[in-house]
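Session log. Operator J.P. requested a structure for one protein chain; no other inputs attached. Running the standard single-chain path with token output.
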Amino acid sequence: NELTIRTKFSIPLIAISVFTILISILSINNGKRLSADAHLLSTTFMTAINVGLNADRDLYQALTASQNYVTKKVIGLDNTAEDRQSFDENAQQALDRMNQVLDLLKDYPEAQQGKAQFERDYAAWLAEAKKVFQMADEGKASEAANYSSTVVMPLFQTLRDHYDVSGENVKNKADQVSAEAKAAGDNQRTILIIVILLVVAA
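Structure written below.
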């Protein structure tokens, strides 16, 4: 009888101990998951979004520098060196920053699908954009302005689409990770509540 009573008391205590350990494990796992997702969102996606916005700004600044260069040539101004330098620097930064975005998303194959086409479109735009400077330097400023509008601008718009798509891809991936983290957290909380109820019942 004494053994039976002791056994009856020990079973609930063992159950409570097991459930308590299970609660601790679930809480730790949930905390680790939330921490990992928060780190991923802050270090990868937010950085990629910021870098992508700067890359898009650089691309537009390169366009502005090119237009300013041609305009000054048309009206006969000589202070064009700064515009040419601005174009070269911003065009390179637009490329470097896009590559940085792609590198940040290297673990997501879907974000890399347009990389080869981006490189081709960038090279095509840059080659034609440089012809504008060459024509302006040769005294063909009006032809350069027309060439920029009819040839270079369509290439610029095609290139810029890559920056738009990249930004959308980053945002969509960040939203997906956030949604998955929320769903996982909700599931673990449900399990945690069930385990707590079992502990109370025991």
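Operator note: The chain is about 90% helix and 0% strand.
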